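P.,

For your records, the input lines for the assembly:
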Amino acid sequence: MRLSASDIYAYHRPSPCGLRVYLRHRGELESEPGEYEEVLRRLGERHERSHLKSLRGVVELDTGMREERERLTRQAVADEQEVIYQPALRASLEIAGVRWEVTGDPDFLIRWGDGYLIRDCKIARRITHKDHPEIHHQMELYGWLFERTFGTPPRALEVYNGAGEIVELTYKGGTRALQELEVIAGIKRTSREPYEPVGWTKCKDCSFHYRCWPQAEGRKDVALVYGVDQWMVHELREDGIEAYPKLVELFTEERLARLTKPAGTHTSRVGKRAGSIMRMAQALVDGREILIQPPAIPESDDYVMFDLEGMPPQLQEPAKIYLWGLQVYGRHPGEFRSALADFGPEGDRNGWLEFLRLAGEMLEENGDLPFVHWHSYEKTNIRLYVERYGDPDGVAARVLENLVDCLPLAQESIALPLPSYSLKVVEKYIGFERKLHNTGGDWAMARYVEAVETEDEFERQALMNLITAYNREDLEAMWAVLQWLRSKVQPDVKLVSAEDAEEG
Ligand code: SF4
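C-alpha cells returned:
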C-alpha cells in the first residue's frame, strides 16, 4: 500500500477531486494532457533546470532505481553534501491499522547550518495556502519524510516560485499533510467507486473528463444543472435527489431556497438563486430553452464585437493581452481589426496603444456604439491596462462606458438546456459552426508560447495568423449569439451570417 506526494497533487489539481485519486489508483485510462498543460510542464522543467544551474556543489540523484536513490540520498546527507538534487525519501505510516509506504522526492536538499532545508521549484507565483494548498501539503510531507528519515526536522521549507523569489513555508510537523494522506488512503482502499459531482470548470481540464461527463449525462445528474454548486449536490442527494428530473418533480423553488450549506466557517443558503436553478433544471428536463424575459440589449444600428486573447502571469511575466480583436457588425459592417503585442521589450505597451488607436478610429467613424463582449475578462483587462499604461486620449474610458457583457444578458433572459453558458457552448446550441476546429483559449495560449519561443520569423507569423483567425471566429460567433438573443426581443430580426454582414 503506497502513498506519495504526487497523490496530494492528484487530489487537488487541476481541481479538487477524490474520484481522480481513486481512478488513477485503479489504473483507469487517462486522456493525454491538453496543449497548454504541456506548455506549463515544459516551462516548469525549464524553471527547475535554470535554478539547478544557479547552484554549486550539486549531487544529482535524478536517475536510477528508487531504492538506490533512497540509499544515495541517505549517504549524501551523511556526507554533508552541499546540494542534493532530486533526493528520494521514504517512511512508513500506519493508518487505521494498515501500514503504508509513503514516498516523496523534493527537488533539492540544501545544506543549511548543521542541517538541511528543503526547496521545491514551482511555476506558480502566489504560494498561499488558499491558492495552492497542494504545494503547502506536499512541502509539509517532504518535511515529515525528512524528519522520519534523518531524525531531525528540516531547517526550513522553501519554494522557488515562478516570479524567481524564494518563499518560506512554516514546517508544522506534517500534521495537515498526514491528515490529507488519511483521506487519500481511505479513497484508495474503498472497493466501490466514490460519487463525485461533475462541474463544468472542475472537470474541463481533468484527464477523466472523457469518462465522467458522459456518465453524468447518462444518469441526468443534478450536478449538470447550471447554478447548482458542489455543496448543493451533496445536500440534494441527502434529500434523495440525484437526478435533475427528480429535482423538478419533488422540489419547489421555496424548498430549494431553504437548502443550507452544512456548518463550516460560514453558512450559506441557496436563497434567491433557487428560481433560476429550478428553471435551468426544467429546461434540461424539457430539452428546450425557457424565455425568462426579453434580453436587455441596447438598441443600436451597429455593434462592435470585442474579444481579447491573453496569457495569465507566467514565471517573470505579468498577465498580458497579446491580441485585441474588434469588428463592427450590423447595418454598417466593418473589417476585422486586431492590435497585436509585438515581441520586443515594449510589445505589451505597443499592443495597448494600437488597440486604443483602433478603438478610437471606430468611435470616430461610428460615434458611441456598444462594444459587446462575453464575460468580465475584457472589462477587467481594459482597467488593468489603463492602470499600467494610461489612457492619454480617453478612448479606453469611452470603450468602458460602452461595454455590454453579453453573458449576463443571456443568463438573465433565457434558461438554456445546457450545463454551461460559455460562448463555445451557447454558439453550438444556436447552430453556429466554426471553420477552425480543435481551437480554444488553451490552444491559442499554447500557440502564442510557441510564437514567443521560435526564432523563425516565418513560423512566428504563421502562428500569429492562426490565433488571429481564431479570434476573428470568436467575434463571428459572438455576433451570431447576439443576433439570436435579439431575435428573442424582436422575433422578426432576420438572422444574418457573418459573411452576409461583411458583404453588407
Ligand atoms: S472528470 Fe471531474 S468528477 Fe471526474 S475525476 Fe475529473 S474532476 Fe473528478
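Two observations worth noting. Residues 15, 17, 19-20, 23, 196, 198, 202-203, 206, 208-209, 212 surround iron/sulfur cluster (CB under 6 Å). The chain has three domains: 2-189, 219-288, 302-503.

Regards
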